[in-house]
Design brief:
Length: 84
């Protein structure tokens, strides 16, 4: 794991856990526009629109496409509940 991978990202759907890993940054499709989460981001709860969640882990970019959902960001933990 890269030293900068210090954000715990969890993506759930109603059926199962889609992804759980440590990442260095996450980009999310908010209903008011795309936004980026970096280390020590302010606490936030937001709704999400259809789009792609993009994250970087160990210097490699990954993504998950969603239909809609919600995200909670607190203490370097990003928890997403989304429909796929």
């Amino acid at each position: 794991m890269n030293k900068s991978d210090n954000i715990h990202l969890i993506i759930y759907s109603p059926e199962r856990t889609i992804l759980e890993k440590m990442v260095s940054k996450v980009s999310l499709p908010g209903t008011l526009g795309r936004f980026m989460v970096l280390t020590n981001h302010a606490p936030l709860i937001s709704s999400l629109d259809e789009g792609r969640i993009v994250f970087v882990s160990d210097g490699v970019e990954g993504n998950v496409d969603i239909a809609n959902g919600f995200v909670e960001i607190v203490d370097n933990k990003v928890t997403v509940c989304a429909e796929l």
